[in-house]
Specification:
Layout lengths: L12 H21 L6 E6 L3 H16 L3 E2 L8 E6 L4 H20 L4 E6 L5 H10 L5 E3 L7 H11 L3 E3 L20 E5 L1 E2 L10 H5 L3 E2 L2 H13 L4 E5 L15 H9 L6 E5 L8 H9 L6 E3 L7 H7 L5 H14 L4 E8 L6 H14 L3 E6 L17 H26 L3 E10 L2 E6 L4 E5 L8 E10 L2 E6 L1
Parallel strand pairs: 1-2, 1-3, 3-4, 4-5, 5-6, 7-10, 10-11, 12-13, 13-14, 17-19
Antiparallel strand pairs: 8-9, 15-16, 15-18, 16-17, 18-19
Helix pairs in contact: 1-5, 8-9, 9-11, 12-13
């Protein structure tokens, strides 16, 4: 990026150069400590695809420092947990997994344990780690990812615990090495942070304000992925619809079209798309671009306008349904998925029923449904919440039953149809692949098909599980 185009949140080239120097220094220390044998790193990611992408970049730095990788935690010389703060379940799992490391560390005292990510950006969390988990060596937040070599070098040389949790609006660091988890599916972040401040959501507090990568950087990384053989690229952002809103350099719809025009046989996906910023322009672009999947993940969270207002979502039930209507008009084969929160503070059963009626009207392909989970520091956490967990559980089951009926109906309609499928995995002679609409189909085949597109005819369905055969 030209110097004149450097933005306030861009990490200067000189700082990244310094991190590469730290990586080389850390590598020298590790070679001396392990007698030239590559130490092993175990990296575990909690939470969303954004965290998975961050872990791929952190593993890129670790590889430059000389680490190999293992899936067996007892073999590791370095353990890294990349944490998620969005829901209570993920929060509790992290503490459980960290506690389980204590006996492993006792048997292997030279092991370095590091915690990072969204949870570590919360002061009450890292203070608890500092006080109650003395065997953890390194803690850093979401804004220090690009500084891993420096932080690791401090731990290696000082032997002391290092905590680096800066409160800021966040950065963008280009040029970080990437060690990808797969060869034919790729995560491609286009922006970081969030400006929406939904009343239930911790993300703006732990990820910082909204900031977009330059279109040149995104398109260049897309070209690299395609050249390496990637067949399925997912563009990532907390709200991809507001990409480049701060600069106006290139809209998200324009970015989609630019990537779609790159030569190659590949598929483009994206998430997450916020309804308040979703436009007809975007839907028209999806319909026009043959490589963009006919799949739209459009979280509506609640079907009731009062609850949506309390959530600070910025749209109404009517606005959401108008977007769905237009999407189906320009893309009759569109596959729609969504997120739903059940039992938001103050929600009544009658208001919850508005959510059920919305899913029945839209007929989603699938849903990610959660019982409301209070997050310390958010506005909703201090709202009155008189409905019992037991009642919320009943509502949740009612909602999932309604969606199961919709999914079974959709699956039955797919029997006899043929779909282009990307083969993703093989178990015992049975392949699993994803359609353009992000629906999984199982069909006979061997590992030679993995990473390839094939035409699959659906032969049977059981509820929402589909079986087929290669045509």
């Amino acid at each position: 990026m030209p110097k004149s185009d450097v933005r306030a949140f861009d990490v200067p080239f000189e700082q990244l150069k310094k991190q590469r120097e730290y990586a080389a220094l850390a590598r020298t220390v590790l070679e001396s400590r392990y007698g030239g044998k590559a130490p092993l790193a175990y990296v575990h990611t909690f939470g969303c695809q954004g965290n998975v992408s961050d872990s791929e970049r952190m593993k890129g730095w670790l590889a430059q420092m000389g680490y190999g990788f293992t899936d067996v935690i007892e073999e590791a010389d370095f353990v890294l947990f990349n944490t998620c703060a969005v829901r209570e379940h993920a929060h509790d799992r992290v503490f459980g997994n960290v506690g389980a490391l204590k006996p492993i560390k006792q048997n292997k005292p030279d092991m370095i344990i590091a915690l990072c990510g969204c949870m570590m950006q919360q002061e009450h969390v890292w203070q608890k780690i500092k006080k109650s988990y003395p065997f953890v060596n390194l803690v850093f937040g979401t804004h220090a990812l690009h500084r891993i070599p420096e932080l690791m070098y401090k731990v290696l040389c000082s032997g002391k615990r290092v905590f680096e949790v800066e409160n800021c609006d966040g950065y963008i660091a280009e040029g970080i090495p990437v060690r990808r988890d797969g060869s034919f599916k790729g995560w491609l972040p286009i922006m970081y942070g969030c400006n929406n401040f939904c009343s239930y959501c911790i993300v703006p507090y732990v990820r910082g304000r909204e900031r977009s990568r330059s279109s040149q950087a995104v398109i260049a990384e897309a070209r690299e992925l395609i050249a390496s053989g990637c067949k399925d690229i997912t563009l990532l952002g907390q709200n991809v619809n507001s990409y480049n809103r701060e600069s106006g350099e290139m809209s998200f719809a324009q970015l989609l079209e630019e990537i779609n025009n790159i030569d190659g046989d590949f598929r483009i996906r994206f998430m997450t798309s916020h309804p308040k910023d979703c436009t007809f322009e975007l839907l028209d672009t999806m319909a026009r671009c043959e490589k963009v999947s006919r799949h739209l993940h459009l979280p509506f969270q609640s079907g009731n306008n009062r609850v949506l207002k309390e959530m600070n979502r910025g749209y109404t039930r009517e606005k959401y349904l108008s977007l769905v209507e237009y999407a189906k008009k320009v893309m009759p084969d569109i596959s729609l998925t969504s997120d739903i929160i059940v039992g938001f503070p103050g929600e009544t059963y009658e208001e919850f029923r508005d959510t059920v009626s919305l899913i029945e009207a839209v007929e989603f392909t699938s849903l990610f449904t959660f019982i409301y989970s209070p997050r310390e520091g958010t506005k909703a956490a201090s709202m009155p919440d008189p409905i019992s967990r037991e009642d919320k559980g009943k509502w949740f089951r009612e909602l999932t039953l309604a969606q199961e009926k919709i999914a079974a109906k959709r699956s039955q309609k797919m029997v006899g149809q043929t779909y282009r499928v990307l083969c993703e995995e093989c178990n015992g002679g049975l392949l699993s692949g994803r359609t353009d609409g992000s629906v999984m189909i199982d069909f006979p085949g061997d590992e030679s098909y993995i990473g390839r597109f094939v035409d699959v005819k659906v032969t049977a369905c059981r509820n929402w599980t589909l079986s087929g055969e290669i045509v």
